[in-house]
Amino acid sequence: MTVAEQLDSVVDRVASAARRAGREPDSVQLVAVSKTFPVEVIRAVIASGQRVFGENRVQEAQQKWPQLKAETAGIELHLIGPLQSNKTADAVALFDVIETVDREKIARVLSEETKRQGRSLRFYVQVNTGLEPQKAGIAPDETVKFVHLCTQELGMTVEGLMCIPPAAENPGPHFALLAKLADECGLRKLSMGMSGEFETAIEFGATSVRVGSAIFGTR
Ligand SMILES: *Cc1c(COP(=O)(O)O)cnc(C)c1O
After folding, report:
1. Contact 194 CB / ligand 1 (< 6 Å)
2. Nearest residue (CA) to ligand 1, atom 7
3. What is the pLDDT of residues 151-192, one digit of tens each?
4. Measured between alpha carbons, how far is 190 from 202 in angstroms, rounded to an integer?
5. Helical residues (DSSP H) of the chain, grouped into ranges
């Protein structure tokens, strides 16, 4: 299958999963994760109508996206990987949504930099639902307080929560926990589910799924 056909198939599967969950297909946003793939391949996916993309590294995105954004109006680029403070200015200049806000220091720098550049970025707070030591994200029991800091004190537009469940576990309970935490924070958006489990995530209320290999192929 071509990437265009694979994209079509994922779009169909997202819509079917939404209907099975009693939801409108357009209540789930598909973020096409293009990390490691070159601009020519991404162009084919843009030509098929996809406009929302995710990258996990600032430097790689800087090499690919200024040109792709200049070619096509309406591209929305999400940062889905960890952010270092020395890359914040670049990230704020290029990305439209940053999904990986996970600590106070980075939140403060992002807030300042967004104001300094006059950008209107949207943010997600990443939650480490499995409390994995090697994984980024705020602890579940600190999430409400942290979201409050970001919105009330720092004036950030936090749209929702994001998680990456432990690879070896059943993701359902992690998706359920993220949904519960978002509810407690008064947030409506949930970025959860990748190629292997986006249909399950939609069942648990995902409003955004981040799908890479099912569209682009194996990395
Ligand atoms: C790479 C990545 C994805 C996409 O993973 P696939 O299994 O290729 O769909 C989603 N979310 C994050 C945070 C990623 O780094």
Report:
1. yes
2. 195
3. 999 999 999 999 999 999 999 999 999 999 999 999 999 999
4. 9
5. 3-20, 39-47, 58-71, 88-94, 104-117, 143-148, 172-185, 198-203, 213-216
